[in-house]
Structure formats: structure tokens, C-alpha cells
Amino acid sequence: MSAKSSQGASRIWESLASVKLAVTLLILLSLGAVLGTVVPQGQPQAFYHHWASEAWAKVILTAQLDRVYSSFWFLLLVAALAVNLIVCSLNRLPKTLKSMGSTPTPEGLHLPRVRLSQSVHGSASPEEVHALVREKFSSLQGIGGRVVESGRADAEGERLIFAQTGRFSRLGAYVVHLAILILMAGGLATALLGFKGNVWLHPGQVLDHIDLRSGQAMPLDFKVRLDKFIFEKYEDGSPKLWQSNLSFIRDGKVVETAQCKVNHPATFGKVTFYMSSYDQEKTLDYIGLEVMDKDGPPRKIRIKNKEAVSLEGLGRIEILDYDPNWRGGGFAAKIRLVREGAGAPLEFWVRPRPPFQMPPQGPEVPTFKLTDARAKAGEYLAGLQANYDPGIWFVWIGGIIMLLGLVVALFWSHRRFWAEIGPGQSGTRVVLAGSTQSNRPSFELKFKALVKDLEESLAGLETGKKK
Questions:
Q1: What one-character-per-residue DSSP string does 63-120 give?
Q2: How many Cβ atoms sit within 10 Å of the Cβ of residue 50?
Q3: Sequence-ordered list of residues with C-beta below 8 angstroms from that of 264, at least 6 positions apart, any chain
């Protein structure tokens, strides 16, 4: 590789590892999350043409703002942040590993100049003090701890002891980085491969698909049947229990049965069913419509089930279908409009709130708004939420690793202690020194406790000699 190519690759590598890039990506992801909150997600395209102006509807659909968290640009931002995190970790890991393994040799041991240092004096012999300090330093060892002594005394009879503990705590940040990457992988897996939808069943009904939130029907590789729906109330009329007894069918045979209750989902294959709602099947009696022409006041009509109403200058209107919770948005009715002197009849759903009719019709057709409806209650319906989340195990594993990494990073630290033992003016002098990778206030307390403990132990040696 040429020198220019090498320099170019190095600049790219450093750019990918920069903190500025990470901050920029996090800001962009935050803005994307704001858009995902402001713009309704997972609605049919026709919804956005009514919810916003025509120009904004095109922007929303083109930029995939109707499904922000699975949009190409949001996933690219997440992937870029993952690359930044990986490069940043690889860029700093060699230095960290070198620091972890840099235990001084007995021959190369020396007392460094560090901010935390204090002298302790005692009248005991250097050999007794050496044994005492060696014992104290050995008690400091934990995971990754090690004690090293100088191999020989110098000209003044001084000896050095070194101890360190918590070397592996330097890896805590990298464990957290790994956990974040696993969580990102889980989010990407869910966004790209997962799905969420709804299923409404009445007792005895069999379905082989679920209705996604986008309005599309997603086929299943099995069938689900509601064998029995149990609904119980308290004395005051509030719901006490609603439970669905389900059968899962493959090749015409029941291969598994399950009870689906609130907080007790049922899983078959890769799909998990949650007991999310219930309703009563209703036989439609009539609907009320408000017909809003561009010219003239609105006209109100009432249409009975299985009957038709004719409007002057417009045509004949009849009810085709109704749904008590159409696409999760409440009651809606499907009507057919046979216009006077026009071609094929028009069929569309009408609702009580915008967008009032879906799919939207042309400018020559007035707007229909559902104003009233009455239906006779029948048997109960079970509302199930069907969910496939391939990233759930990534989330569990990433969460556990994240917790371990935070414990290591926040509650452990790489601590080093030095003790120089040599002759003093009135016996033996011990110079203690210490340094830590993080959490300095806690380390200073521990260092002061070590100094105090050593002073008391030296005083005990002197008292024992006097006795």
C-alpha cells in the first residue's frame, strides 16, 4: 500500500472513531425518534393523504416517515453508530490491554511520583516492617490482583513492594459497548424481520392470517381457532377475567392447544398471541351518514341494514359491511354508492373521524361521514395481538451483559499501591503511594484507611516489644 493510501485509510479510520461523529449520529437518531412520535406510524397510505396536505403526504411516504424505526435512513444511522462504536473500541482496546498487562518486573520496580503519597514511621526492624507491609498488600488483592517485590535491596537498604487490583475493570467500558451493539442488533432484527398485528375471533372461527397495523393481511403457516371465550365480571360490572382457549392447526390437525389470558400469552411457532381486548359481536341495525357536498349544506340520512337509500342528484347508497373496530380505529361501515348516470359503483369505508372515507374518492364524489350507528349485541369476540419479535433474545442477552459491564465499570477500578521500606531517623520509614483509574474520592478513603491500619499495626509491634 502506498504512503498516500495508508494516510487516507488512517484518516478514514480516525474519522469513524471520532466522538463528534457519535454525537452527530445520536442527535440525528433523536430527531428521527421525534418524527416517529409526531407522525402517526403504520397507517395505510390513504390515511396520510387525509391527515396532511397532499405535498406533505408525499414527503411522509417518500421519506418513510410513516414507519420511521424501520425506514432505510434510520437503519443506516443505527448501522453507522454501530460502526463508530466498533472502530472506537478497536482503536482504544490495544492501549487498554497494554495498561492491564503492564505489571512491573521485580528488577524494574520503582516508586513513582504520584499525587497520593504519605510516609509512615516505626521503630521496628526493616525485616519486621517488610513482612507486615507484605501481609497488608496481599490482603488488597482481588480479581486481577498481583503483588510484586523488588528482587534486591539498593545501597541504602531500601526495598519496594507493589500491589494492584481490579485490572480487568478497564474492560468494563468495552463490555458495555458490546452490550449496546447486541441491543442494536436486536432492534435491527425486530425492525427488519419482526411484525405486529391484530386478530379478532368469535368462538369456532378459524383464521390463517393476521391484520398488520399497516392494513395489510399477513398469511401464517398455520391456522388458529378460538374454541371458547370466557368472560367474567365482578358484581359492579367491571371485567374480572377474559380468556381465549385456542387451538393451533397444521395440515388439518390440531397440534397444540393453549389458554391465552391477560399477562399470560400463548406462543406457537414464532408468533406470540396476547389477550389484548374483547368485544361483543353485533348485528347492525342502521347507520347515520352526513353527506358533505362542495356546494350546499350537508345532508343527513339514515340507512337500515339490507336496505338502500337514494339521494337526489347523487345516487343509491347501501350498506355492504361493518366493523366494530376497523383497523383498530373504532366503528366503521362499508358502503356502496351507485351514482346516477356514472359507470361502476364505488365501494369504500366510512368513519366518524378523519379521514372520513377510505380509500379516498375523487373530487366529483362528496365526503361521507359516519355520524351514528346502532347494532344489537351478540356473542363475545376475542381481540388478540399477534407479535413476532426476533430481537427479544438479543435484548435479554444485551441487557444482562450491559448490567455486568456497568457493575464492572462503576464499582470496580484499577488500583495500584507502592510501598518503599527503608531506614528512617528513628527506625524504619515506609513511603506509601497509590493511584487509581477512576473513582478517586473512594480510592483516597481506602488509601487513608490503609495508612491508618499500617500505623496502628506498627504501633502494635512496638507495644509488643516493650512488653
A1: TTGGGGGGSHHHHHHHHHHHHHHHHHHHHHHHHHHHHHT-PPPTTT------SEEEEE
A2: 16
A3: 275
The C-alpha atoms of residue 110 and residue 18 are separated, in whole angstroms, by: 36
Residue 48, SS3?
helix
Distance CA 343, CA 167 (A): 81
Which three cell numbers mark 320?
355492504
Cα–Cα distance, 201 to 89 (Å, whole number): 51
User: Is the C-alpha dihedral spanning 357, 363, 366, 367 positive or negative?
Assistant: positive
**pLDDT score of 465:** 57
- Grid cell, residue 208, equals 390463517
427-436, strands of its sheet edge to edge: 116-122, 427-436, 415-424, 159-165, 146-149
Q: Which residues contact 94 (CB under 8 A, 6 or more apart)?
A: none
Tell me if the bond preceding 360 is cis, omega within 30° of 0: no
Calculate the alpha carbon distances from 257 to 215, 250, 384, 406 in Å: 28, 12, 15, 42
Q: CA 357, CA 290: separation in Å to the nearest integer?
A: 12
What DSSP character marks residue 324? T
Mean pLDDT by 10 residues, the chain (467 residues): 65 82 91 90 78 86 88 91 90 80 71 87 82 83 66 63 84 90 90 85 90 79 92 81 92 93 91 87 84 85 89 88 78 88 84 84 83 80 89 91 88 86 82 88 89 86 58
Express each pLDDT in 74-87 by its tens digit. 989 999 999 999 99
- DSSP percent split of the chain into helix, strand, coil, nearest 5: 40, 35, 25
CA–CA gap between residue 110 and residue 368 (Å, rounded): 89
Q: Environment class of residue 210 by beta-carbon count within 10 Å: exposed (0-12), middle (13-18) or buried (19+)?
A: buried
How many residues in the chain? 467
For residues 221 and 215, what is the distance between their CA atoms, to the nearest angstrom? 19
| Rounded CA separation 320/306 (Å) | 8
Which of 253, 127, 272 lies closest to 190 in space, CA to CA? 272
Beta strands in 110-169 (DSSP E): 116-122, 146-149, 159-165
**Dmax (CA) of the chain:** 124
| Amino acid found at 49 | H
Q: What CA–CA distance (Å, rounded) separates 52 from 64? A: 15
